[in-house]
Amino acid sequence: MNPTRQRRLTIIIAVLAAVIVASALVVYALQQNMNYLFTPSQVQGGEAARYKTFRLGGMVKAGSIQRSNDSLKVTFTVVDASGDMPVEYNGILPDLFRENQSVIATGHMDGARFVATEVLAKHDETYMPKELKDAMAKAHSGKHIDETVNQDKPSP
Amino acid sequence: MANWIPLWLHKLSSPPVFYGFAGKLRPWAIALALILGVAALYGGLVLAPPDYQQGDDYRIIFIHVPCAWMSLFIYGVMGIAAFIALVWRIKLAEVVAMASAPIGASFTFITLVTGSLWGERMWGTWWTWDARLTSELVLLFLYLGVIGLYHSFEDRRQGARTAAFLALIGIVNVPIVHFSVNWWNTLHQGSTIRLLGPSSIAPSMIWPLLTMMAATKCYYVASLFGRTRTDLLALESGKDWVRHIAENEVAR
């Protein structure tokens, strides 16, 4: 390799290394304070107290969905591994919204309950046909394993 | 000693040799892309069973995911070509890097649009500023930046080298896009297909996905070779080998 190429190679590798280190530091820093959402236990622990509006993420507790008869108002409970929080929402829910589904609600605290202005359903990475799901549910029902709980990400 | 590989690669990097090589390979790549693409679409849209939660709406995965893979893969190719172009000043590497940018930008655009359509139905929103969506949008802007920078120079080789520098630096975004769903809490789900460990998709749904992945790769090769051939002709327009081709065309 001739000296010119050697020099170019050194410069480019040095620039690339600097950029990689810089972005690794940015990613590392953002991991600590860039939160897309808070889980109910994090909110109850006071981590979201700095924010007026924030996103609340967790699973919809089975049997907690209550719809109003004369309006779009709906209340449900969002749970994570160690906390739960009542949520109130007035609007149209996404197709995937159902019991035991991960949801992300944007809104603010009103006393002990969370008033949402937007509710999004988080989809997990599992894709399977309905027949397979039914067969798995049958196999699981004897053991009372709620497999959707395990698919949820651990809280950071 | 297997030194025929570097020798062959060295020969291939000369514009006339690559022009001929790409011309011979291109029809095969187009044919393969078409056959695989049609098979994958039929498998994905007709044969694959509906999803247990999303019904038929999940079928956009057969377009969205292969395009998302290609958006990252092409950036990787462009980054490597840019690196070779900057250090060794090989003309072919410059051309390959610059010809890859519009193809990668198109795949990124398709990824963003299909993801948005799916998100409206499933999540309940067209767009959200989570880490995966934002970094993919940055990827599109990087592609557009490379294209723009390349064309803002009078001298094409000067433009290619400057744009190659941006392409090379932007490569740090590729692992960020890929790992964003693991590093941060995002609305976007994690990876369904894993190289290591089991994938969380049924076998009846995975084969159209992998076939479409092969089809998009073939399409990339076909499109890249086509663009590279015309760019090489334009760059080397005064050279003998181009004159030969031109004279043969006229004689025909």
UniProtKB/TrEMBL annotation, chain A:
<keyword id="KW-0735">Signal-anchor</keyword>
<dbReference type="InterPro" id="IPR012340">
    <property type="entry name" value="NA-bd_OB-fold"/>
</dbReference>
<keyword id="KW-0408">Iron</keyword>
<feature type="topological domain" description="Extracellular">
    <location>
        <begin position="30"/>
        <end position="156"/>
    </location>
</feature>
<dbReference type="Pfam" id="PF03100">
    <property type="entry name" value="CcmE"/>
</dbReference>
<feature type="binding site" description="axial binding residue">
    <location>
        <position position="127"/>
    </location>
    <ligand>
        <name>heme</name>
    </ligand>
</feature>
<keyword id="KW-1133">Transmembrane helix</keyword>
<keyword id="KW-0812">Transmembrane</keyword>
<comment type="function">
    <text>Heme chaperone required for the biogenesis of c-type cytochromes. Transiently binds heme delivered by CcmC and transfers the heme to apo-cytochromes in a process facilitated by CcmF and CcmH.</text>
</comment>
<protein>
    <recommendedName>
        <fullName>Cytochrome c-type biogenesis protein CcmE</fullName>
    </recommendedName>
</protein>
<dbReference type="InterPro" id="IPR004329">
    <property type="entry name" value="CcmE"/>
</dbReference>
<feature type="transmembrane region" description="Helical">
    <location>
        <begin position="9"/>
        <end position="30"/>
    </location>
</feature>
<feature type="topological domain" description="Cytoplasmic">
    <location>
        <begin position="1"/>
        <end position="8"/>
    </location>
</feature>
<keyword id="KW-0472">Membrane</keyword>
<keyword id="KW-0349">Heme</keyword>
<keyword id="KW-0479">Metal-binding</keyword>
<feature type="binding site" description="covalent">
    <location>
        <position position="123"/>
    </location>
    <ligand>
        <name>heme</name>
    </ligand>
</feature>
<dbReference type="InterPro" id="IPR036127">
    <property type="entry name" value="CcmE-like_sf"/>
</dbReference>
<keyword id="KW-1003">Cell membrane</keyword>
<keyword id="KW-0201">Cytochrome c-type biogenesis</keyword>
<comment type="similarity">
    <text>Belongs to the CcmE/CycJ family.</text>
</comment>
Automatic annotation (TrEMBL), chain B:
<dbReference type="InterPro" id="IPR003557">
    <property type="entry name" value="Cyt_c_biogenesis_CcmC"/>
</dbReference>
<feature type="transmembrane region" description="Helical">
    <location>
        <begin position="60"/>
        <end position="88"/>
    </location>
</feature>
<feature type="domain" description="Cytochrome c assembly protein">
    <location>
        <begin position="11"/>
        <end position="188"/>
    </location>
</feature>
<dbReference type="InterPro" id="IPR045062">
    <property type="entry name" value="Cyt_c_biogenesis_CcsA/CcmC"/>
</dbReference>
<keyword id="KW-0201">Cytochrome c-type biogenesis</keyword>
<feature type="transmembrane region" description="Helical">
    <location>
        <begin position="162"/>
        <end position="181"/>
    </location>
</feature>
<keyword id="KW-1003">Cell membrane</keyword>
<feature type="transmembrane region" description="Helical">
    <location>
        <begin position="28"/>
        <end position="48"/>
    </location>
</feature>
<dbReference type="InterPro" id="IPR002541">
    <property type="entry name" value="Cyt_c_assembly"/>
</dbReference>
<feature type="transmembrane region" description="Helical">
    <location>
        <begin position="95"/>
        <end position="119"/>
    </location>
</feature>
<keyword id="KW-0813">Transport</keyword>
<comment type="function">
    <text>Required for the export of heme to the periplasm for the biogenesis of c-type cytochromes.</text>
</comment>
<protein>
    <recommendedName>
        <fullName>Heme exporter protein C</fullName>
    </recommendedName>
</protein>
<feature type="transmembrane region" description="Helical">
    <location>
        <begin position="201"/>
        <end position="222"/>
    </location>
</feature>
<feature type="transmembrane region" description="Helical">
    <location>
        <begin position="131"/>
        <end position="150"/>
    </location>
</feature>
<keyword id="KW-0997">Cell inner membrane</keyword>
<dbReference type="Pfam" id="PF01578">
    <property type="entry name" value="Cytochrom_C_asm"/>
</dbReference>
<keyword id="KW-1133">Transmembrane helix</keyword>
<keyword id="KW-0812">Transmembrane</keyword>
<comment type="similarity">
    <text>Belongs to the CcmC/CycZ/HelC family.</text>
</comment>
<keyword id="KW-0472">Membrane</keyword>
